[in-house]
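Standup notes
- HV: blocked on the assembly model, inputs below
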Amino acid sequence: MATVRDVAERAGVSIATVSFVLNGTKPVTPATRDRVEAAMAELGYHRNVLARALASRRTRILALAHPTLEQRFGSTTTDFVTSAARAARARGYHLVLWPVDTDGDEIRELLSQGLVDGVVLMEVLLEDARVEALTGSGTPFALIGRTADPAGLIHVDIDFEQSMAIALDHLQELGHREIALVSAGHALPEYGPKVRSAAAYRRLCGERGLRPLLLECEASVVGGRSLVPRLEGRTAVVVMNEFACFGLLSELASRGVAVPGDVSIVSFTSPDMAGIADPPLTIMRSPGATLGALGVDALIDRLEDPELMPPPQLLPCTLELGGSTARAESSTPA
Amino acid sequence: MATVRDVAERAGVSIATVSFVLNGTKPVTPATRDRVEAAMAELGYHRNVLARALASRRTRILALAHPTLEQRFGSTTTDFVTSAARAARARGYHLVLWPVDTDGDEIRELLSQGLVDGVVLMEVLLEDARVEALTGSGTPFALIGRTADPAGLIHVDIDFEQSMAIALDHLQELGHREIALVSAGHALPEYGPKVRSAAAYRRLCGERGLRPLLLECEASVVGGRSLVPRLEGRTAVVVMNEFACFGLLSELASRGVAVPGDVSIVSFTSPDMAGIADPPLTIMRSPGATLGALGVDALIDRLEDPELMPPPQLLPCTLELGGSTARAESSTPA
DNA sequence: ATGAAAGCGCTAACAT
DNA sequence: ATGTTAGCGCTTTCAT
């Protein structure tokens, strides 16, 4: 591997000059710049990122901290991770994977190694020990999700208010006025998406004169089945529990309740899941890939200008029409 | 951040001695070792992995190279990645994400930065330009999957021979003798899992006196539906196309063909998918998490002893019984 | 068993 | 505009 020394020698300049053209740190005569660049090309020179990191005291490595016990998010998670890594690369950074427990200990341990300049934290909880560990460390970080009070923290998240409004808009435009919300009876008592969606749902129902009905069930097919007797004649259901959705669907079918004829369903899930349901689901699709890139970009912006406080970015899920929603006129609800 | 210098000073020894206790590189008197360790504890010392990497010429960072365009593997991929990262951590390594194109250019580019000691390559193709890039680079690597001729390459993969045998065993024990295999009509013409499974299926059919029927279809619900007219009276189907499986199921249902009453189905897919099918599927479950850890361990073994050539590890999928397979006696096939 | 000192390959003052 | 040089924090000979 060629080093700056080799390049400098071949170009007949000092290693400092090589460094200047490499980083654009100081002005260099076009003529010598050319000589240096030619030398680099001839030698196949690539700078050693490690040495650079040590000398510049910036590693240009970011960590992607995520829970060990994966919520089974499927393709959304994959999209998110890939786009985060690509976004980092586009700005000259690398992304290391840090599976970490929810207490902040592993985070602290890993931070102390000095490998990373910043951390992207996934699956943020309303109260989150990892966030405290990060705050205490002084290492810049970006949250994917939000704590209960995210003021002053760099974060990007789904806009649950707006997402819920879009889902309700769609159903109301179809004439539905009796709309239930189903969420997961989470092991995590205070799961942000659930809490925020429920709050948005309640508020919107209030504003729009709708009667709220909020149901919870286990995140499984069996859980979904158990919902049917509790639907109280609703003609539409918004489901934030992708596995339960299949149980709901199958139980409705077996009771002769037609979807979307009698009951309309909007599910917060991925297109993959939507496609294998019968009927194919109308979904609210998570902006996973976009969030990954935005989170990384916000963090790097901050890293490169510590004065900066990148504003929170809240993106709604997008409505993708499937075959599980229809006009309410003829509904004969469950 | 405390440095070796600080520790050495506090312990009243030289920095070399600190390094010796840190790495166990040379014998140190219990007494001085204690003093050094006390000093480290008091100062909250953690060694800087970057400086260590630069000095030792080993970064202890591994890359996980994976295709940008994710095959939508869902939870299997997530498990794989998480377990690979954990395995690396357990041995004092970090894992960086490298989304790369299938030509080897990005790989070469990234390798030249000198950030990583080795690469774990996912989604290996039978002919794979990335493998050539790696071979040419001299950087040690491990394959998850196999090229057409993987001799001499460190690799771990699913044992498709054995997996297929297990699936057929199960169906034959239930009395089935007319068993079809469904695979994906892949964009990639030479996708290892498909080719190897098909070969195993043909060979096993030959050995066991079964008539092979190999069908392909698009990886979608629509693709799955198109299979039914082509089943030629088979009483059992092995499906290696997880999305098509749902189309198959629904088309059979709408034609009044009962699963598992008339046709049994074994699907190579994840438990998540199995759970939302109706009936819940009997599956062959991929050993994703195990492969992730094995791949990383094999690579690190090699890194730490270049003499070593870790043997290939081929693991079968595991049969998990669901409700989509039953005895053949009363079958009235499609 | 311990220490002194020379780098690892680069960046970034500080000179010129 | 370019060069000199002192580190970044650690590992690792080579002495003692």
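- HV (later): unblocked. The radius of gyration of chain A is 26 Å. Residues 231 and 334 of chain A are 7 Å apart (CA to CA).
- Next: hand off to the docking folks.
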